[in-house]
Amino acid sequence: MHNKFNKLSLAVTIASTALIASQVSASGFQVREQSAKTLANALSNAAAGAEDVSFMAYNPAAIGHIDGNQVAGGVAYIDADFELQDATASNGPIVYGVDQSGQGGETATVPSFAAKTQLNERFDLGLAIYAPYGLSTKYDEDWIGRYHAVETELKTIDFQPTLNYRATERLNLAVGLRAQYADATLSTANDLGTAAALDPDNPLNSLATPGKNDVIGEVTGDDWGYGYTLGALFQVTEKTRLGASYRSEIDLTLDGELDVRGTDPVSDAAIDLGAVTGTGGKAEITTPANLNLGIYHQLNDRLALMANAEWTEWSSFDELVVEFEDGRDPSRTEENWDDTWAFSVGANYALTPQWLLRAGLGVDESPVPSAEFRTPRVPDADRQWATLGATWMPSPALGITAGYMHVFADDGDIDQDGSKEENATKGSLNGTYEVEADVFALSVDYRF
């Protein structure tokens, strides 16, 4: 059967977008909600706060600031809303929609756990389990941008055993190993109607209608990768502490399996006839390295001030190469993401010996350099945070913390050009994204 929309073109469409999303939450697809205490302070205490064992996820040397043994567990609930406004989509002479909108926000729950023990006067041993990256967006299957994305879900989990060395009474140095598991599920609609209508040799030619006979392709893939983290914590004076940490990049090879299904009798028939079939692909990707620098100062008995700067090496995501199981030429997609900085400040106020109030503000750069590189899977833009929270300590050994963050994101234009090679089967998509999110976090820590 001579069909322009065959299993190979479908494989390119799905595998390339799927593995992009696995590489593409914070800026990019980063997740920073590993502690309710850091969230409530807008992450301004990430590198230098060292308040409990959960801070090991940001700076492994934090466990050296905690004597004895401690466990901590927490959960963050993320409610994100993405809406593409005034959208226009087309593919050559085919117009899919004009001045429409599409909402793709999703919710996600992010758990975390950490524990440490003090081996002796010099060494501490810890383990942190947390999610450093993640993404969840879902649109209606008939939305205007369906040929670029329908559903995107990326989950990662890091297992981080950590060893801290108390070099002096003021200096802690730590190293941690990271074993990272990544799992992705992505789906995209494909315009079978246009391909069949333009192909006179296709037996479905007389039945097909452009933009009306879609095939949904869903790909899943997973892999393990390994890296490391380094940290230092220096107590300059009794009231001032400096922190620095580095988390390495991790290389992953995501293997994907593609499943297809029709949305109407015509697309179902195409699958039954074998004109559209699934296939597989793989891509080598890298989750980025990042660096945290912070300062914590106890101004007086009640008030503490803090600040943090975080650099993320998103420039490692400059191109995605997808290789196919059938041996055809690889698919290449240009990304050109930029390195980013995030800055935050915060304060703690001891209302009583049992209650500590928290607040913070932050700004975060987007790695997406321009509208042509913004996608519906990651409608990222520069953002600002405002946070607040409180810690209740019913005893010196037990702390319960609740935190809230609201994310204000700048509007982000999208300009996906249908003439680009990677958009040959997707067409053009233009509009403006409005993005905002709310995050709620709760954690408990216990020292023994």
UniProtKB/TrEMBL annotation:
Signal peptide: 1-26
Transmembrane stretches, start-end: none
Primary site of residence: membrane
Membrane topology: Multi-pass membrane protein
Subcellular location: Cell outer membrane
Keyword flag Nucleotidyltransferase: no
Keywords: Cell outer membrane, Membrane, Signal, Transmembrane, Transmembrane beta strand
Key word Signal present: yes
Pfam families tied to this protein: Toluene_X
InterPro entries noted in UniProt: OMPP1/FadL/TodX (IPR005017)
Name of the protein this chain belongs to: Long-chain fatty acid transport protein
Species assigned in the record: Halomonas fontilapidosi
One term of GO molecular function: long-chain fatty acid transporting porin activity
Family assignment from sequence similarity: Belongs to the OmpP1/FadL family.
GO cellular component, as recorded: cell outer membrane
